[in-house]
Amino acid sequence: MTLRPASASWFELLTSREELGATLDCLAGTGAVQLEAYSRAEQRLALPDLRATLAEYETLARRYGHYWPNAVDLRHAAERDLLEAPRDALERVRGWAKEADPLIAELEELAQSAEDIALLTQLQALSGDGLARLDQVAHAGPVLAGRVYLLPEGGPPQALPPDVLLQRVPLGERLFLLAVGPASEMLALDQALAARKARVIPLPADLPSDPAALGTDLEARRKEIATRGSAARAELDALSEQLGIAAALGELMLAAWLVTHVPELPVTEHFAWVTGWCADPDDTRMRAALDARNLHYLLRFTPAPEDAVPPSVLRNPAWARPFEVFGRLMGVPGTREADPSMLLALVAPLMFGYMFGDVAQGLILALIGFLVRDRLPALRLLVPGGLFAVAFGFAFGSVFAREDVIPALWLHPLGQPLTVLGTALGFGVVVILLGLLLNALQFHWRGELGHWLATEAGLLVAYAGIVGAFIDARLLWLLPLGVVWLLAGSALTARVDRLGALGHAAGESVERLLQLGVNTVSFVRVGAFALAHAGLSTAVVGIADASGAAYWPVLVIGNAAIIALEGLVVGIQTTRLILFEFFLRFLSAQGRPFEPLTPPVPPPSSLPRSNP
Question: Which of 227, 249, 276 is at the close of a domain?
């Protein structure tokens, strides 16, 4: 547990080429390994060939994905070759596609027929006894012709052939249109309705002549199509099982993961050399994962290559990890920068709770954060923020916006606004001083503490004089002392042109002191938002009291509005103060992020099957 990020450790691992896939799977499962190729001597893994294999697989997936089974578990067996397995799997998929084409064509034809029968069933149900005899529409030729159309929203065009008999049957915003007329006129109607994207519903040639039997006939056809479709689907599934398509798809999914997540790896005819970074300080977890799969390997942690930049690893306790999100908004702290996550675990909820002090509203926010913590990880910050809001709710005597339910343990904000604003200002001074001290700590980690003592320490003394003068005017003498300290130290530590360094330090000291003053005053907004929250609560209670019988609905709606509006605004202000008033003092976020290798994710189920 430390404020300083750790450097990831460099590892080198030798394994057999046959066990490379299982080895990578184990490393990904630890969540603590980032691969980085570094060898120049050995032959590289043939990823371009693998990409070509996957490109053909994706082409096949677009055509046949609806009919494939779900892929099997993607964990790679140790005895499989990671390069040859995808090629073998693609060959099996090719063979399956060749044999499955007739079955798929039959299934697609049956699906189309099933949809046509379903539409005719809808037409018969909507029109009842008024429906024209479909058997006669189907056999209107040779001089006449008959059609059944389904038109989208908008209906038919205004100009229709004059010698065509029409029957309209509405279907929501769409329209069934039955038409009988001379064959030449029907061809003209086909062209006119095709422009409206109308669909022609084919009529079976052997429809019953008795209209009362039409519904029974259509249901029998639907069942027959479903039976034939089930038989074709069973035959297709049997073919997939015979050729091992589920396993083949698993191999191809794993190959896609390899191309996406794994950089080039040096390999020889029999061995593979895996290099990269480990977030752990030792190899215990890596060895345990590899040993659990009974893999053969040689593993060692060595100094990193000279030109390699190690990623930064944040090793915060579980209670501080959610607050890493603030630092990541700027980047990743370098290994000689401070990681403020543990400090933010106190500072951020304290600011949030001060601006949002209410017992009941704070509990609701904490409950929301707890319920959505897995779905929306960033909102888990509402849990500590809400709990601090509860604490300040007791301090301010506020429950559900009312200040007459419990006594205030400290004060009512609207009753003592200057105290509220002054406390927020004092809190801001503490936060800025923390930032300046973290900057000193970073100078120490870089081996430059002497330079900080000679220069930057003067800035800290000057700032202490400014804020101390509000407590005791005699402390104001620290301001000129700190400025002289800073100027003299800058001149003495300059290697050349000390007079120029003195002038530069003078201008910079004025700018930085003004900046510190502005940053400090910015924290007054913490108190201002606490007063705004109290004022809004008072307004809601006043409206509720004036509503008579509608008191409780108004109070509930008012509190919900406060939680939604104030929760968002206070969250934004907390983030802004942390980023621009606190981080500005020390954090430059020049670190390299640690990006662990992720395990291959089981693919989602195959696309929905188009059953007839």
Answer: 227
Which residue, chain included where needed, has tokens 């003004």? 514
Contact yes or no for 302/10 (Cβ under 8 A): yes
The reply to whether 518 and 433 lie within a common domain is: yes
Q: Which residue has the tokens 């429950």?
A: 399
Q: Torsion over CA of 477, 479, 480 and 485, rounded to 10 degrees?
A: 120
Residues 199, 267 share a domain? no
Same-domain status, 420 and 567: yes
- Sorted by sequence, the CB contacts under 8 Å of residue 111 that are 6+ apart come out as 229, 610, 611, 612
Q: Is the pLDDT of residue 289 over 60?
A: yes
**Do 400 and 478 fall into the same domain?**
yes
Q: Which residues contact 572 (CB under 8 A, 6 or more apart)?
A: none
Does the residue 527 lie in any domain? yes
Strand partners, 43: 267
200-255 confidence digits (pLDDT tens): 999 998 888 888 888 899 999 999 999 999 999 999 999 999 999 988 888 888 77
Mean pLDDT, the chain, integer: 88
Residue 567 has pLDDT above 70, yes or no: yes
Q: What is the pLDDT of residue 263?
A: 58
Phi and psi, residue 282, nearest 5°? -140, 180
Write out the residue range of the structural domain in which residue 110 sits: 1-119+228-311+594-612
Tokens of 510: 């004025």
CB count within 10 Å of CB 227 equals 12
User: Look-up: residue for tokens 């009941």?
Assistant: 360
Query: 447 and 405, same structural domain?
Result: yes
Inform me whether the pLDDT recorded for 440 exceeds 70: yes
The model's pTM is: 0.68
Structural Rg of the chain based on CA atoms: 37
- Gap between the Cα atoms of 137 and 323, Å rounded: 72
Let me know the angle formed at the C-alpha of 457 by 462 and 441, rounded to the nearest 5 degrees.
Answer: 135
Question: What is the domain-level CATH number for residue 147?
Answer: 3.30.70.2750
What DSSP element (H or E) covers 35?
strand 33-35
Q: Are residues 299 and 166 in the same domain?
A: no
Does residue 164 carry a pLDDT above 50? yes
Tell me, yes or no, whether 194 and 184 share the same domain.
yes
Q: Where are the alpha helices (DSSP H) in 279-340?
A: 284-292, 324-328
Using CA atoms, how far apart are residues 113 and 116, in angstroms rounded to an integer? 5
User: Same domain for 83 and 220?
Assistant: no
Q: What are the Cα distances from residue 235, in Å, to 95, 147, 227, 243, 611?
A: 15, 35, 12, 12, 14
DSSP designation for 583? G
Task: Kindly state whether residue 286 falls inside one of the protein's structural domains.
Answer: yes
**316 within a domain of the structure (yes/no):** no
Which helix (H) or strand (E) covers residue 174, if one does? Answer: strand 174-182
Domain final residue pick, 227, 260, 288: 227
